[in-house]
Amino acid sequence: MKGIGIAYPGPRSVAYSSLAFHMLTTFLEDRRVGVKRIFLEDGWLEGDLRGGLPPLIMVSLPYELMYLDLVRMLDQLRIPVYRDKRREDDPIIIAGGPAVTANPSPVLPLVDAVLVGEAEPVLEGLADTLDIQGRDRILDELAGMPGMLVPGRSRLPVERVYVRDLDKAWYPIRQETPPGVEPVWGRSFMLETTRGCARGCRFCMEGSIFRPKRDRSLRVLKDLLEAGVKASKVGKVSFYSLAFFDSPHGQGILEYAVSMGLETSVPSIRAETLTPERARLIAEGGQRTITIAPETGSCRIAKAIHKPICTGGTMEAIDNAIEGGIRNVKLYIIVGIPGEEDEDLEETIQMIREAASKLRGRGMLKVSINPFIPKPVTAMQWIGLEELGALKAKIARVKKEARRVGAQVSSYDPRYAIAQTVLSRGDEEVARLVVEWARLGGRLGAMKTAAKRTGIDLSRYTGTMDPDKVPRWHELVSHPYSSLKALKREYELYINIIGGRGLRIKA
Fold it and tell me: What whole-number distance in Å separates Cα of residue 383 and Cα of residue 466?
């Protein structure tokens, strides 16, 4: 059949919570391109597969651990998992999303092409390829498109593509969710106010790969909001951005949504951008909890990661939240940041104590504790993951102290940090690990077995990298505004601030 498959290697509820999923499906359907939606529900293939597979399947891979689900999906679709084993009548698999935009290497042996960057500049061209006959001819056409990395055919490095003007970009007004499917954040219209971030946090991959920061105008935001809630038949808007109030129109569009009587959901907020008035608007929109991501309570570490908020800024944000009517606050904490010492960790714990004291008797403090994970296309991409035992000890220590003061605590298993680091900083060899691991069931404990069977040394990817060597992902992709030279300069600034203190990282 003619058409394009849109595959999300996860549950429907998560897929329909993804703006990218709505963007792909709605854009193609509006242009009368047949779309087949494909999902993995509890690891099993579901979707409309009547009439056979379409010639192109686009797979969304926002997170590295979804590479395992990609393998499961290909196996269940009976498509050879390695691209060099595919036949003339097998679908062409195109991967996209933040994870593969940052580092396509681990999936290159598994897919026929990678969309490097944002989808809008290439969707029209993808639809046009349906008129081309023959696998080789289609791949040649894809290789000639901006932002498309086709192994063995594209000229390297491929430059990441992005939308220059969000006001002029196409947007999915119709965001329909089928009956019986409940998105993660409830049924709502997702409204992207800003794309990218100008803050330059040295650990943040999303902030780096989505540069430059671009804002939609208030006029366009209002038009999209009015049309979107009507077309999507919802009474709620979920705002979509990396730092909501960094938009010059964040407060304005929030005010407008509240004036329309809509329920609103605001994403994670930079502490220094929250005022009592903004907190009041968030509360009026029905949101009961705000998320602030200080990462650390240590001013030294905060300065090093280029997010100098410190405990004082976080406490002021909590005071403003309380004054505005917000009673529940979630703090996102990272431990194991390279250079972190005991005194830095104690300052983070003290920040949690102060936050709990402010909220006691008024609301709930929630704390999410996460290990630092080095990511590609960041200033900290060369620095290794802290040793597993040390990460476990730090998480346990912060968790114990947070619970002692009555906080509700969640944490990320540091063993998954190892897996995520391997997949995010991996090369093409890691594809063999992914395939073996997925076919062993994909459980965390099976990763080491898969590594042993494939002869892959995990420490090669989790350890410190030589900053004088060019990482594989920079050979494959050129990132505007995040050049290797610029990242290296930021890395050197980080090391200078840390001064070598506490760098207990795997070599």
Answer: 9
